[in-house]
Amino acid sequence: MAVATVLEKIYGSEFAREHIYTSMTMIILWGVVSLSAMWYMLRVKLYRKIATFSLHLSLIVILAGALITHLSGKQGKTHLRIGDEPIKEFVASDGNSFQFPFELSLRKFNLEYYPGTFSPSDFISEILIKDGDAEISGSVSMNKIFSYRNYRFYQSGYEGDGQGSLLSVSFDPYGIAVTYTGYVWLLLSIILFFFQKKTIFRKVWKQLKSKPGLTILFILFGICPSLGTPSTIPKEVAKEFGRLYIYYNSRIAPINTFAHDFAMKIYGKDSYQGLSSEQIVAGWFFFYDEWKNEPFIKIKGVEVKETLGLEGSYARLVDFIGPEGFKLEKLIKESGLESKDIFTANEKFNLISTLVTGSALQIYPFKDKETGSLKWFAVKDKPTEEMPFEQWLFIRSSMNLVAEKIALKDWEGVSGLIEKINRYQLKEGVVHLPSQNKIKTEIFYNRFNYDKPLAMIFLTLGLVLFLIFLSRFISGKTISNGIIYSSLIILILLFIYLCFRLGIRWFISGHLPLSNGFETMQFMAWVTALATFFLFPYFRLALPFGYLICGFTLLVAMMGESSPQITNLMPVLQSPLLSIHVMVIMLAYTLLFLIMMNGLTGLLIGLSNKSIEKTVFLQNISHLMLYPAVFLLVIGIFIGAVWANVSWGRYWGWDPKEVWALITFLIYALPLHSISFSLFRKPLFFHSYMVFAFLSVVITYFGVNFFLGGMHSYA
Q: CA 305 to CA 310: how far, in whole Å?
């Protein structure tokens, strides 16, 4: 499967699915695994342990359901248009057509948007089924299936004119039922397992149960030269400018958010020469002749720097233009935009161009009287036919008047005009605009960002604490209460900070902040801090481990900080199953990260021949965390499968991230079978395995996104 994900990247997903994932060879391999597992379970009389036997049987039932789906299920698509004749067939992915035992037509199609935007929130197809003399009406939308006679219809796409809809079709009367039975069976078996006697988990639990805190754990699981500061507007006036509404990133936000993202993306920081991000945007827009000569654009890549004639890391806008025209044009023709450095440099130039021309500042809403929706205009946009002349004149002239007042340094006049624009926005936007409380909260959120310094602080303190705790752990000496209490207080403060950040982000976006890498890394830091509190009374090394993991996850989150982050969710991502899926997976990853750190410690102690007892103790700790980690991982995978089935009509698509999640599960499930594999009873081998096994988690979360691609690349 690991090789298949690489071949898929080279030859395409259809090649991988046809020649590997669904090939007869793969089916035979899964069959051999299932039959040999059954034979072995009977040989060792595993049925004496009901929960363990039941757990393994549930996995075989799930595989059986997948086989039934493969052999008897049919998946395809059908295209409907309002007013067309009813259709009687759908087309499968292999090009074959299959007949419906009824007729299907489209009565109506609705495209719903987030309030005041053109960002779709849902696609809804009203369909009509004629089955003999019977007529059945129904609706299909994202995350809402319509079923009839074992045919399941899913909203897949639509036509731009709003008169046509593309539906996915799935006919799988037996496979899904068997698979879902396996999912429920698996969940019940996992719950029953923790109450089963005579397991390795119970054995380790009894050895360590006298320690406090563990029960709760299972309940809650550069510098660039400048001749001076360029011209812009005063900071207080810039703040007023930043509170105006703007249609940006497919949602309505304050200009402050656009300014924050602009500065971070172009310069890499939220301020420049002591100027705020709002002052930076105002400077570029109103004082272009000065700012085009500022070394403001951060450039990476030797080839790009040489092309622009740079000696340092920052370019001026004028550096992009030479006698030959746009300097990057030759590089783009030769290498295309596949080079990240070329792509980023070109993107920054284009982003500045959209700002200085005014097209990025879509700050003028216009309410469509027929639909009631808002259209957003920039200064130089052409008016629609239904827009009154006076309104168009205000849009065309208001920003010019602001520029005149700025040239005269009439800051009161500038503030007055900004207030007029804001009143226009409130009048025209009415109920579509976010509340002032939400706007103020978002502006505060943009400024309340200490992730990067906190990441460095926690990584540094984590390393220091690890050395202190490790030396005390080996020597058997106690650690001073001052170090323990101060470390816990700092961790509590981080936990409060993360609660605050995640809560505000939830309030601003209107959905759980678990939709991208930045948010999931912050959530993982939050989970790590929480887990550390409950592990620490039982396992002292959990404190430095918690510090290191929190620092690392916050640092990884910062890798995407220069890109716009808060967005409206795509319709397919609005299912509550997504949030549950991500939370469960991140809980599993957190425990696996802790196990990896514990494994490193065990190796350091074991290789130094300090104490075999302590390596065994650490092995028991890892074993105790491994069971819930693997169970959470498998539950997260199957919740994701249910979500995929509801959204796309298939619970398993052999996407690279799905495949690597399955690989990770198999890798971590192996050491749970230490009775069968004696090597895992040896502490040094166990710890070594746990360290290297974490590479599969790294590939699943990061490697797939950056190298293999697929539907989950956004995650």
A: 5
**Cα R_g (the chain), whole angstroms:** 29
C-alpha–C-alpha distance, residues 160 and 234, integer Å: 45
| Identity of residue 199 | T
Q: Which residue has the tokens 């020649």?
A: 19
Measured in residues, the chain has a length of 715
DSSP class of residue 573? G
Task: Supply the mean pLDDT for the chain.
Answer: 83
Distance, CA of 369 to CA of 374 (rounded, Å): 9
The pLDDT of residue 211 is above 70 = no
Distance between CA atoms of residues 581 and 562, nearest Å? 27
> What is the DSSP code string of 446-505?
HH---HHHHHHHHHHHHHHHHHHHHHHHHHTPPPPHHHHHHHHHHHHHHHHHHHHHHHHH
- Average pLDDT value for residue range 26-54: 91
Nearest to 169 by CA among 125, 208, 201: 125
Dihedral, 335, 341, 343, 347 alpha carbons, nearest 10 = -150
CA 130 remoteness from chain centre: 42
**Residue in the structure block whose two tokens are 């998946």:** 75
Question: pLDDT, tens digit, for every residue of 233-242?
Answer: 999 999 999 9
Residue 79 to residue 62: CA distance in whole angstroms: 32
Tokens 């090009």 belong to which residue?
A: 95
Backbone φ/ψ region at 54: left (φ over 0), alpha (ψ -120 to 50), beta:
alpha
* Token pair belonging to 174: 């037996």
**Rounded average pLDDT over 285-292:** 91
- Residue partners of 389: CB distance under 8 A and separation at least 6: none
The beta-carbon contacts of 675-678 under 8 Å, at least 24 apart in sequence, are 675/200, 676/40, 676/44
pLDDT at residue number 118: 55
> Helix (H, G, I), strand (E, B), or coil: what is residue 254?
strand
In angstroms, the Cα distances linking 582 to 77, 219, 516, 621 are 29, 18, 10, 25
Q: Kind of pairing, strands 297-298 and 251-254? A: unpaired
At 559-612, the pLDDT tens digits run 655 443 555 555 555 566 777 787 788 888 888 988 998 898 888 888 776 667
Closest CA to 641 of 184, 21, 53, 193: 184
Q: What is the pLDDT of residue 405?
A: 92
- Whole-angstrom CA distances from 398 to 173, 307, 352 are 62, 40, 22
In the block, tokens 């379970």 appear at: 41
